[in-house]
Amino acid sequence: MEKKHRSESKLHIIYRYIMLLIGATLAALAIELFLIPNQIIDGGIIGISLLINHLTDISFGILVFVFNIPFIYSGYKNIGKNFAFSSLFGIVALAIIEPQLHHISPFTTEPLLATVFGGLLLGTGVGLVIRHGGALDGTEILGILLTKKLPFSIGEFVMFFNVFVFGWAGFVLGWEQAMYSIITYYIASKMIDSVVQGLEGDTKAVIIVSDHYEEISDAIIDRLGRTVTKLKGKGGFKDNEKEVIYVVITRLEISKLKTIVNEIDENAFTTIMDTQEAHGSKFKSAIH
Protein backbone atom coordinates (compact mmCIF):
# COMPACT_ATOMS: atom_id res chain seq x y z
CA MET A 1 0.00 0.00 0.00
CA GLU A 2 1.40 3.40 -0.98
CA LYS A 3 2.14 5.68 1.93
CA LYS A 4 0.35 9.02 1.80
CA HIS A 5 2.14 12.14 2.99
CA ARG A 6 0.32 14.92 4.78
CA SER A 7 -0.04 17.94 2.50
CA GLU A 8 0.99 21.45 3.49
CA SER A 9 -1.75 23.31 5.38
CA LYS A 10 -3.46 26.30 3.77
CA LEU A 11 -2.36 28.52 6.65
CA HIS A 12 1.26 27.55 6.15
CA ILE A 13 0.99 28.13 2.38
CA ILE A 14 -0.41 31.62 3.01
CA TYR A 15 2.37 32.34 5.51
CA ARG A 16 5.01 31.08 3.05
CA TYR A 17 3.78 33.29 0.23
CA ILE A 18 3.57 36.33 2.54
CA MET A 19 7.22 35.78 3.46
CA LEU A 20 8.13 35.36 -0.22
CA LEU A 21 6.40 38.69 -0.90
CA ILE A 22 8.29 40.39 1.95
CA GLY A 23 11.58 38.98 0.67
CA ALA A 24 10.93 40.19 -2.88
CA THR A 25 9.93 43.63 -1.55
CA LEU A 26 13.14 43.98 0.47
CA ALA A 27 15.21 42.95 -2.57
CA ALA A 28 13.36 45.52 -4.72
CA LEU A 29 14.01 48.25 -2.13
CA ALA A 30 17.72 47.39 -2.06
CA ILE A 31 18.00 47.41 -5.85
CA GLU A 32 16.01 50.56 -6.56
CA LEU A 33 16.94 52.75 -3.56
CA PHE A 34 20.56 51.73 -2.97
CA LEU A 35 22.18 49.90 -5.89
CA ILE A 36 20.83 51.43 -9.11
CA PRO A 37 21.27 55.11 -8.04
CA ASN A 38 24.91 54.41 -7.17
CA GLN A 39 25.68 52.20 -10.20
CA ILE A 40 26.38 49.19 -7.99
CA ILE A 41 25.35 45.64 -8.93
CA ASP A 42 25.05 42.22 -7.34
CA GLY A 43 26.25 38.95 -8.81
CA GLY A 44 24.35 36.37 -10.84
CA ILE A 45 21.22 37.03 -12.88
CA ILE A 46 20.35 40.09 -10.78
CA GLY A 47 23.76 41.58 -11.61
CA ILE A 48 23.41 40.87 -15.33
CA SER A 49 19.92 42.41 -15.31
CA LEU A 50 21.23 45.54 -13.59
CA LEU A 51 24.04 45.90 -16.14
CA ILE A 52 21.73 45.53 -19.14
CA ASN A 53 19.28 47.95 -17.51
CA HIS A 54 22.13 50.45 -17.24
CA LEU A 55 23.10 49.99 -20.89
CA THR A 56 19.65 49.86 -22.50
CA ASP A 57 17.13 51.32 -20.02
CA ILE A 58 15.03 48.16 -20.36
CA SER A 59 13.16 47.68 -17.07
CA PHE A 60 15.12 45.69 -14.50
CA GLY A 61 11.92 43.87 -13.56
CA ILE A 62 11.36 42.66 -17.12
CA LEU A 63 14.98 41.58 -17.49
CA VAL A 64 15.18 39.62 -14.24
CA PHE A 65 11.89 37.87 -15.06
CA VAL A 66 12.86 36.94 -18.63
CA PHE A 67 16.36 35.75 -17.71
CA ASN A 68 15.03 33.57 -14.89
CA ILE A 69 12.35 31.79 -16.93
CA PRO A 70 14.69 29.01 -18.19
CA PHE A 71 15.96 28.42 -14.65
CA ILE A 72 12.44 28.26 -13.22
CA TYR A 73 11.56 25.66 -15.85
CA SER A 74 14.73 23.69 -15.01
CA GLY A 75 13.87 23.96 -11.32
CA TYR A 76 10.39 22.61 -12.04
CA LYS A 77 11.81 19.62 -13.92
CA ASN A 78 14.69 18.82 -11.57
CA ILE A 79 13.82 20.18 -8.11
CA GLY A 80 10.01 20.24 -7.88
CA LYS A 81 6.90 22.23 -8.60
CA ASN A 82 6.71 23.85 -5.14
CA PHE A 83 10.17 25.30 -5.66
CA ALA A 84 9.29 26.47 -9.16
CA PHE A 85 6.01 28.10 -8.12
CA SER A 86 7.60 29.78 -5.10
CA SER A 87 10.45 31.09 -7.27
CA LEU A 88 8.02 32.29 -9.95
CA PHE A 89 5.94 34.12 -7.34
CA GLY A 90 9.02 35.79 -5.83
CA ILE A 91 10.45 36.84 -9.20
CA VAL A 92 7.10 38.18 -10.46
CA ALA A 93 6.69 40.12 -7.20
CA LEU A 94 10.20 41.57 -7.62
CA ALA A 95 9.47 42.49 -11.26
CA ILE A 96 6.22 44.25 -10.30
CA ILE A 97 7.36 46.01 -7.12
CA GLU A 98 10.72 47.36 -8.33
CA PRO A 99 9.29 49.74 -11.02
CA GLN A 100 6.81 51.13 -8.48
CA LEU A 101 9.73 52.51 -6.47
CA HIS A 102 11.12 54.73 -9.24
CA HIS A 103 9.51 57.88 -7.79
CA ILE A 104 11.17 57.41 -4.37
CA SER A 105 14.43 59.28 -3.83
CA PRO A 106 17.54 57.16 -3.12
CA PHE A 107 18.27 56.60 0.54
CA THR A 108 21.89 57.59 -0.01
CA THR A 109 24.23 58.66 -2.80
CA GLU A 110 27.32 57.72 -0.80
CA PRO A 111 28.68 54.58 -2.53
CA LEU A 112 30.08 52.97 0.62
CA LEU A 113 26.80 53.34 2.52
CA ALA A 114 24.88 52.06 -0.51
CA THR A 115 27.24 49.09 -0.73
CA VAL A 116 26.84 48.08 2.92
CA PHE A 117 23.14 48.74 3.47
CA GLY A 118 22.14 47.70 -0.03
CA GLY A 119 23.97 44.41 0.46
CA LEU A 120 22.37 43.83 3.86
CA LEU A 121 18.87 44.56 2.57
CA LEU A 122 19.31 42.54 -0.62
CA GLY A 123 20.76 39.59 1.28
CA THR A 124 17.86 39.66 3.75
CA GLY A 125 15.31 39.68 0.93
CA VAL A 126 16.93 36.92 -1.10
CA GLY A 127 17.51 34.90 2.08
CA LEU A 128 13.84 35.09 3.04
CA VAL A 129 12.83 33.83 -0.40
CA ILE A 130 15.30 30.91 -0.20
CA ARG A 131 14.29 30.10 3.38
CA HIS A 132 10.67 29.77 2.27
CA GLY A 133 11.28 27.53 -0.70
CA GLY A 134 12.06 29.76 -3.68
CA ALA A 135 14.83 31.67 -5.44
CA LEU A 136 15.24 35.11 -7.01
CA ASP A 137 18.36 34.22 -9.00
CA GLY A 138 18.73 31.25 -11.32
CA THR A 139 22.53 31.04 -11.12
CA GLU A 140 22.57 28.41 -8.38
CA ILE A 141 19.91 26.35 -10.18
CA LEU A 142 22.15 26.35 -13.23
CA GLY A 143 25.05 25.39 -10.97
CA ILE A 144 23.11 22.41 -9.59
CA LEU A 145 22.36 21.17 -13.10
CA LEU A 146 25.83 21.71 -14.59
CA THR A 147 27.84 20.33 -11.67
CA LYS A 148 26.19 16.95 -12.26
CA LYS A 149 28.10 16.83 -15.55
CA LEU A 150 31.17 18.97 -14.77
CA PRO A 151 33.89 18.44 -12.11
CA PHE A 152 33.00 21.61 -10.16
CA SER A 153 31.06 22.31 -6.97
CA ILE A 154 28.07 24.66 -7.02
CA GLY A 155 30.07 27.28 -5.10
CA GLU A 156 32.94 27.09 -7.58
CA PHE A 157 30.55 27.46 -10.51
CA VAL A 158 28.80 30.50 -8.98
CA MET A 159 32.16 32.12 -8.23
CA PHE A 160 33.41 31.40 -11.78
CA PHE A 161 30.18 32.83 -13.23
CA ASN A 162 30.46 35.99 -11.15
CA VAL A 163 34.06 36.62 -12.24
CA PHE A 164 32.64 37.40 -15.69
CA VAL A 165 29.76 39.45 -14.26
CA PHE A 166 32.03 41.69 -12.20
CA GLY A 167 34.61 41.84 -14.97
CA TRP A 168 31.90 43.09 -17.32
CA ALA A 169 30.81 45.57 -14.63
CA GLY A 170 34.37 46.92 -14.55
CA PHE A 171 34.24 47.80 -18.26
CA VAL A 172 30.67 49.15 -18.15
CA LEU A 173 30.53 50.97 -14.80
CA GLY A 174 34.21 51.50 -14.04
CA TRP A 175 36.54 49.44 -11.90
CA GLU A 176 35.80 51.40 -8.73
CA GLN A 177 32.07 50.59 -9.06
CA ALA A 178 32.96 46.98 -9.82
CA MET A 179 34.90 46.80 -6.54
CA TYR A 180 31.95 48.26 -4.65
CA SER A 181 29.79 45.64 -6.37
CA ILE A 182 32.03 42.81 -5.19
CA ILE A 183 31.72 44.07 -1.61
CA THR A 184 27.92 44.25 -2.01
CA TYR A 185 27.86 40.68 -3.30
CA TYR A 186 29.98 39.49 -0.36
CA ILE A 187 27.79 41.24 2.23
CA ALA A 188 24.61 39.98 0.56
CA SER A 189 25.89 36.38 0.45
CA LYS A 190 26.77 36.44 4.15
CA MET A 191 23.37 37.92 4.98
CA ILE A 192 21.66 35.22 2.91
CA ASP A 193 23.46 32.55 4.97
CA SER A 194 22.38 34.21 8.21
CA VAL A 195 18.73 34.48 7.17
CA VAL A 196 18.51 30.99 5.70
CA GLN A 197 20.09 29.36 8.74
CA GLY A 198 18.33 31.62 11.25
CA LEU A 199 18.49 30.61 14.89
CA GLU A 200 19.37 27.08 13.87
CA GLY A 201 22.63 28.33 12.37
CA ASP A 202 23.73 29.50 15.81
CA THR A 203 23.64 26.06 17.42
CA LYS A 204 26.38 23.75 18.63
CA ALA A 205 26.49 19.98 18.85
CA VAL A 206 28.28 18.72 21.95
CA ILE A 207 29.70 15.25 22.65
CA ILE A 208 30.71 14.45 26.23
CA VAL A 209 32.53 11.29 27.35
CA SER A 210 32.56 10.77 31.12
CA ASP A 211 32.21 8.05 33.74
CA HIS A 212 29.71 10.37 35.46
CA TYR A 213 27.42 10.49 32.44
CA GLU A 214 24.20 9.98 34.44
CA GLU A 215 24.90 12.94 36.72
CA ILE A 216 25.98 15.16 33.83
CA SER A 217 22.90 14.19 31.78
CA ASP A 218 20.55 15.00 34.68
CA ALA A 219 22.26 18.36 35.25
CA ILE A 220 21.99 19.34 31.58
CA ILE A 221 18.28 18.47 31.56
CA ASP A 222 17.60 20.29 34.86
CA ARG A 223 19.78 23.37 34.45
CA LEU A 224 19.75 23.92 30.66
CA GLY A 225 16.36 22.46 29.84
CA ARG A 226 17.88 20.41 27.04
CA THR A 227 17.17 16.80 26.18
CA VAL A 228 20.22 14.59 25.80
CA THR A 229 20.92 11.45 23.79
CA LYS A 230 23.03 8.68 25.31
CA LEU A 231 25.15 6.72 22.86
CA LYS A 232 27.15 3.54 23.34
CA GLY A 233 30.87 3.69 22.64
CA LYS A 234 34.15 1.86 23.21
CA GLY A 235 37.48 3.17 24.42
CA GLY A 236 40.25 2.88 21.85
CA PHE A 237 43.03 1.70 24.23
CA LYS A 238 41.29 -0.61 26.69
CA ASP A 239 38.29 -1.49 24.51
CA ASN A 240 36.04 -0.83 27.50
CA GLU A 241 32.40 0.24 27.19
CA LYS A 242 31.74 4.00 27.34
CA GLU A 243 28.56 6.04 27.60
CA VAL A 244 28.62 9.09 25.31
CA ILE A 245 26.33 12.09 25.82
CA TYR A 246 25.12 14.00 22.76
CA VAL A 247 23.30 17.34 23.15
CA VAL A 248 22.53 20.35 20.93
CA ILE A 249 22.70 23.80 22.53
CA THR A 250 22.86 27.45 21.48
CA ARG A 251 26.10 29.42 21.42
CA LEU A 252 25.05 31.38 24.51
CA GLU A 253 24.75 28.14 26.52
CA ILE A 254 28.31 26.93 25.89
CA SER A 255 29.78 28.59 28.98
CA LYS A 256 27.05 27.23 31.23
CA LEU A 257 27.46 23.73 29.81
CA LYS A 258 31.22 23.80 30.42
CA THR A 259 30.58 24.87 34.02
CA ILE A 260 28.15 21.98 34.54
CA VAL A 261 30.59 19.40 33.14
CA ASN A 262 33.60 20.75 35.06
CA GLU A 263 31.67 20.80 38.34
CA ILE A 264 30.83 17.12 37.99
CA ASP A 265 33.88 15.70 36.19
CA GLU A 266 36.99 17.77 35.49
CA ASN A 267 38.40 14.88 33.43
CA ALA A 268 35.43 14.61 31.08
CA PHE A 269 36.25 14.72 27.38
CA THR A 270 34.09 17.35 25.66
CA THR A 271 33.88 18.14 21.94
CA ILE A 272 31.91 21.19 20.70
CA MET A 273 31.05 21.36 17.00
CA ASP A 274 29.25 23.80 14.72
CA THR A 275 25.93 22.66 13.31
CA GLN A 276 24.32 23.83 10.09
CA GLU A 277 20.75 23.43 11.34
CA ALA A 278 18.85 21.95 14.28
CA HIS A 279 15.20 20.93 13.92
CA GLY A 280 12.69 19.53 16.35
CA SER A 281 9.92 20.86 18.57
CA LYS A 282 11.78 20.19 21.83
CA PHE A 283 14.83 22.15 20.70
CA LYS A 284 12.77 25.09 19.40
CA SER A 285 10.60 25.27 22.50
CA ALA A 286 13.70 25.44 24.65
CA ILE A 287 14.89 28.46 22.62
CA HIS A 288 11.60 30.29 22.76
TrEMBL record:
InterPro entries: DUF2179 (IPR019264), N-reg_PII/ATP_PRibTrfase_C (IPR015867), UPF0750_membrane (IPR051461), YitT (IPR003740). The keyword Lipoprotein does not apply. The keyword Transmembrane applies. Its main location: membrane. It is a multi-pass membrane protein. It comes from the Bacteria. It is found in: Cell membrane. Keywords: Cell membrane, Membrane, Transmembrane, Transmembrane helix. Residues 226-280 form the DUF2179 domain. The chain crosses the membrane at residues 14-37, 43-67, 79-97, 112-130, 150-175. Pfam families: DUF2179 (PF10035), YitT_membrane (PF02588). This is YitT family protein. The lineage of its organism: Bacteria, Bacillati, Bacillota, Bacilli, Bacillales.
